[in-house]
Design brief:
Strand content: 35-45%
Radius of gyration: 22 Å
Number of helices: 6
Distance between the termini: 24 Å
CATH superfamily of the largest domain: TM1622-like
CATH class of the largest domain: Alpha Beta
Strand order of the largest sheet: 7-8-9-13-12-11-10
Number of strands: 13
CATH topology of the largest domain: Protein Transport Mog1p, Chain A
Length: 276
């Protein structure tokens, strides 16, 4: 948190506050469920007021999300893809009244009530100060590097919790979009604690499709095992298991359309990345 005199002409109003998963709802009500689902550990925050006009104020909330993936996921869940970056932390967006960014395992929000022209840049100034106080480089989570750069839709990467494609057997992972033959296809990498967990999920996926009357066709396209199939709402899909990851490409006109991308993602997964 910014200390005394670090934001010129501003001071902390009252004491800083903290919240943990058990009482976060007291602060942000129904929004707490989403934050906790992303792995939230602790919130530290404080209100600051302008010393020459106490009607001008800002609130700085710093969320410890437990991992860089969780901080990234929380950030992207809030961000409008069309928003321009402010160059703060690993990624950022906002305006004269609101700034959000993430760096390392911290997700930060700054909300303000400002009308004076002289104070319009204070929220961004405060955000830059907080980012500077978080040690280490400002980088995206390492796992996002599994997605090849060629034909990737910029800014489409995300970290999903609660079920990729709505499937409980794919509980968490990273996703990205690609342009292919004039269409947009989607790639995902689901994360598991062990290779046995990934293999079990792979088999559950096949059983799910079979129960829908869309049996999976065994494939040798990539990974330790793979299949292709049709899935309602996602057109043709191709899926592979590699170590403790399940990788898939969806929205395909044919399985062959996604084979090269699937192979390149699996190539980038070796050696496996850590969850954190």
């Amino acid at each position: 948190m910014p200390g005394a005199h670090e934001i010129s002409g501003w001071q902390m109003q009252g004491a800083a506050y903290t919240y943990q998963p058990g009482n976060l709802y007291q602060y942000i009500n129904g929004a707490a469920d989403q934050v906790i689902a992303y792995g939230f550990k602790k919130l530290c925050g404080a209100e600051y007021i302008c010393t020459t006009d106490t009607q001008e104020s800002l609130v700085i909330d710093i969320y410890d999300m437990g991992s860089d993936l969780s901080a990234f996921g929380m950030f992207t869940s809030k961000k409008d893809p069309a928003s321009a970056s402010l160059g703060i932390g690993a990624e950022s967006f906002g305006n004269e009244q609101y700034v959000a960014f993430y760096k390392k395992h911290f997700y930060v929000e700054i909300q303000s009530r400002i009308s004076a022209e002289k104070n319009r840049l204070i929220p961004q100034q405060a955000a830059r100060l907080v980012a500077q106080k978080i040690p280490g480089p400002s980088m995206q989570p390492a796992l996002l590097r599994v997605f090849p750069a060629a034909d990737k839709v910029g800014g489409s990467e995300n970290y999903i919790v609660g079920g990729i494609l709505g499937h409980a057997f794919l509980p968490q992972g990273v996703v990205s979009e690609y342009r292919s033959n004039g269409a947009v296809i989607k790639a995902f990498v689901a994360l598991f604690q062990s290779s046995s967990g990934a293999q079990a999920a792979f088999e559950q996926y096949k059983q799910f499709l079979s129960a829908l009357g869309k049996p999976a066709a065994q494939s040798n396209a990539a990974g330790e095992r793979s299949f292709s199939a049709q899935e309602p709402y996602h057109n043709n899909i191709i899926v592979a298991q590699q170590g403790r990851f399940v990788v898939g490409i969806t929205e395909l006109s044919s399985p062959q359309q996604g084979t090269l991308l699937l192979k390149n993602i699996i190539k980038n997964l070796k050696p496996p990345h850590k969850l954190q």
